[in-house]
Amino acid sequence: MPETHIIDGKRIAAEIRDEVRVDSMRFREAYGIQPRIVFILVGNNPASEVYVRNKGITAEEAGFSHETHKLPANTSEEALLDLVRSVNEDSRSHGLLVQFPLPQHIREERVIELISPAKDVDGFNPINAGRLSIGKGQYFAPCTPAGVIEMLHREGIEVAGKHAVIVGRSNLVGKPLALLFAQKNSHANAVATIAHTGAGERLGEITRTADILVAAMGAPLAITADMVKEGAVVVDVGMNRIEDASKKSGFRLVGDVDYDNVKLKASAITPVPGGVGPMTIAMLLKNTLLAAERQRRS
Ligand code: GUN
């Protein structure tokens, strides 16, 4: 069997970040506008703090201006909504990202629905989700699923006519990814299936029909080799901490795919870390530049 191709998301993401940096410089030179993204972080979830800090650093490297509003965990829903309104109205800010999860007392859907669709670089607002579903009009696709499609395209992996099975039905990844796969364009045109825990014992039967198998259910190492067709392309969106006494930290990061065993069967596979993860921020930059370009024209 030919050697399994390991998809290097870190390299592809760096390539995209570089392209965005050049394009944002040109945009700034042409129109005197510096793309600007605003982050809102509520509370002190350590993982969220790291994510937002990294997003800020990456935005800076791309030549964007950025600002992070750090709000205490006891911030009221109304106070957060007021801040969202003020960013919506600030014409200098092109992108707005409210980091999730939010504290329990704040209804995430209220926040998502208030973010201006034109600034919603996460692609979570129902207007953006709806336009993605319709496949028409201006919208932002959520960054992780868009990153999966972009990664396959840049790797020269043909998607058209293939059966893409996505395990996981989240609004962040599973559902939008299925729509992106099924869209009628040159990067997609696949037959898409959303599989999930509701499949019960039939899950393996379904995943074995996948030419492209995407694991996005948030269950460590759950996709085992017997669930994968020989020669399939396997994309792992999972990011889970599992205990590992051999590590100084006491844990290690694993995906939703049993990588070591699945690798022996797949024709191509994404590692964790260094696969889909870095693509998410790269696509966020792409969306932010796109937001600035669209807002200039509007
Ligand atoms: N939390 C985990 N992933 C994401 C993301 O893509 N966007 C936001 N806003 N919060 C997240």
Query: According to CATH, what is the class of the largest domain?
Result: Alpha Beta
Compute the number of helices. Answer: 10
Strand content: 15-25%
CATH superfamily of the largest domain: NAD(P)-binding Rossmann-like Domain
Q: Order of strands across the biggest sheet?
A: 1-11-8-7-5-6
What is the CATH T-level topology of the largest domain?
A: Rossmann fold
Bound molecules: guanine
Which structural class is indicated by helix and strand composition?
alpha/beta
Report the radius of gyration as a whole number of Å.
19 Å
Task: Report on the architecture of this protein.
The chain is of the alpha/beta class and 298 residues long. It folds into 2 domains: 31-116, Leucine Dehydrogenase, chain A, domain 1 (Rossmann fold, 3-Layer(aba) Sandwich); 143-278, 3-Layer(aba) Sandwich (Rossmann fold), CATH 3.40.50. 40% of the residues lie in helices and 16% in strands. The strands form 3 sheets. A 6-stranded parallel sheet has the order 1-11-8-7-5-6. The relative contact order is 0.16. Bound molecules: guanine (GUN). Guanine (GUN) is lined by residues 97-100, 122, 143.
Short overview:
This protein has 298 residues and is an alpha/beta fold. It has helices at residues 9-31, 46-61, 77-89, 108-114, 126-134, 143-154, 174-182, 203-207, 259-262, 277-297; strands at residues 5-6, 36-42, 65-71, 95-98, 163-167, 191-195, 212-215, 233-236, 240-243, 251-254, 268-269. Guanine (GUN) binds next to strand 4.
